[in-house]
Amino acid sequence: MDETRGEDTVARVGGDEFVLLFPGLTNPARIQSIAQRMIARLEEPIPYRDETCRISASIGMVDSTLYPRPEAKQMLDHADIALYASKEGGRARATFFDPSMVGQDDGAATRDDDIRSDHKPP
Fold this sequence. Notes:
This protein is α+β, with helices and mostly antiparallel strands. The strands form three sheets. A two-stranded antiparallel ribbon has the order 1-2. The chain has a two-stranded antiparallel ribbon with strand order 3-4. A hairpin with a 5-residue loop joins β1 and β2 (18-21). Helix content is 27%, strand content 16%. The protein has helices at 28-42, 72-89, and strands at 9-12, 18-21, 46-48, 51-53, 59-61, 94-96.
């Protein structure tokens, strides 16, 4: 994928779910830009036999600097909350997790006290 660097990690964690890790990249505007470029690339028409296929993507993002001690499970839970916020907002969206999303009847197990209160969402 052209949007990733050599030090980045892309992992398929489910049928249509992927986790991308961008070490050292914490600039929300840059991450949002990468997410939008990924969505745009995925939305390009794909010719298949005599048909044209189209897909879209929704992205949930989380910034590790949000946590005093980042833990993978909690970050994945929070990225999932952000993903569902993207899906609820419509197609082709990328949403950063915001601590205010915790407890909005999302079903994910989260702990408010493990989030730094000084984080300013993008």
